[in-house]
């Protein structure tokens, strides 16, 4: 039957009876089916706020879509690796043939290497189809828990790359080539991590790096975004002093609003030295600073993208050019830097004994 | 042919595309919102023409309406599994062409229940299918068909362009005519000024 010859009301009624998973496959059949779906199912498509690509060691691709109104998964499509090897198939054919509409636990494969070029080709094809259907305003996210780095896709806003393999700086840079200005990047457990000089990752608004034995000095020195969270990194105390002095004199870190560092080096920082060298002062009363830190949303957390952070401190530095105040908290292994105008500040009184 | 009485025994004459007429009960016909909007209050003088659809299709549609006259009020589409044996037989005995004609007629007549069941049935054909299977179900136009269609569209566009060009030419001529008095006015003013200048210089 020629579906597209049906009156638009009939097309609408038919499409209304289909699940999102079926609409995605149908949209890939032709441009006109795509237009028909976009025209008749606009409210349903607009509800989708996030599309997440999950790449794991099971060599499958899991695609989930989430909305603001429903806490569960609005659409789930799993693509099995077996179908990728069929080189005669286009990405959407692979998508159609191998899709599984119900979530199943990952079956970890023992395969060490697989065809990443083919996987990239498949994911790019599927991503382009989803972009055509849902548009570019959707929050496209990559979460990779793989020994291989994820492919570089366009219009990605959030990336989570978790891998225990040692990662080459150039290869890591290539992952972000097509979506250079992402909102949120989390790089987790990738061994000693090094970023390229002038890396696009430095421009990320919210960046979190949690990689044991990574040298944090270069990462901190080149960061141009709003919020940086470094966990389990090595960081010289001179880098903290430089950060504070540069910020005070308006020589850098103009965009930086929140910084937290958890140091993993054997040697503790010398708090007094840092305070002396960077002119950190103390208020009489303590201040409680609250701010929102970006996190990777999960179903369990109700897709909440934000987590509340809080410090209590009375140490601060003021910027010479405009008098902007930043609060700092320094301990032998932890350092926090919060720009006052970007946080909620309440008076903590003078009885705190920190 | 009949007065718009509310009794279910009242019969209406329906005319198909072949020009044939047949009876349908008022109760069955009232399931069509299109009929309700067009004829229920004003009545029909003579056969009601539904001449876009053939007799077989219309008979099939009204067969469904006659059957569902005594059913409870419609409350949204039922799942195919919940359909009665009669409903299933009704759908199964249609070939694809008839099925499509029934959907189109049902949509035109705005018979909500039948349209919904038909659409649900098509959706069921598409559910869980892969790309190739879906393409088969919805019979997308082939490359040749698309090419032929493009040629027709190109011809239409060329014809439309010609018409537009002609219209523009005509408009241009009209504009020239309209501009004449203005040009004349400019010339007259220029002559007057020249004369004035000459008289001034003579003085």
From TrEMBL, chain A:
<dbReference type="Pfam" id="PF00646">
    <property type="entry name" value="F-box"/>
</dbReference>
<protein>
    <submittedName>
        <fullName>Uncharacterized protein</fullName>
    </submittedName>
</protein>
<dbReference type="InterPro" id="IPR001810">
    <property type="entry name" value="F-box_dom"/>
</dbReference>
Automatic annotation (TrEMBL), chain B:
<protein>
    <recommendedName>
        <fullName>Skp1-related protein</fullName>
    </recommendedName>
</protein>
<dbReference type="InterPro" id="IPR036296">
    <property type="entry name" value="SKP1-like_dim_sf"/>
</dbReference>
<feature type="domain" description="SKP1 component dimerisation">
    <location>
        <begin position="113"/>
        <end position="159"/>
    </location>
</feature>
<comment type="similarity">
    <text>Belongs to the SKP1 family.</text>
</comment>
<keyword id="KW-0833">Ubl conjugation pathway</keyword>
<dbReference type="InterPro" id="IPR011333">
    <property type="entry name" value="SKP1/BTB/POZ_sf"/>
</dbReference>
<dbReference type="GO" id="GO:0006511">
    <property type="term" value="P:ubiquitin-dependent protein catabolic process"/>
</dbReference>
<dbReference type="Pfam" id="PF03931">
    <property type="entry name" value="Skp1_POZ"/>
</dbReference>
<dbReference type="InterPro" id="IPR016072">
    <property type="entry name" value="Skp1_comp_dimer"/>
</dbReference>
<dbReference type="Pfam" id="PF01466">
    <property type="entry name" value="Skp1"/>
</dbReference>
<dbReference type="InterPro" id="IPR001232">
    <property type="entry name" value="SKP1-like"/>
</dbReference>
<dbReference type="InterPro" id="IPR016897">
    <property type="entry name" value="SKP1"/>
</dbReference>
<feature type="domain" description="SKP1 component POZ">
    <location>
        <begin position="14"/>
        <end position="69"/>
    </location>
</feature>
<dbReference type="InterPro" id="IPR016073">
    <property type="entry name" value="Skp1_comp_POZ"/>
</dbReference>
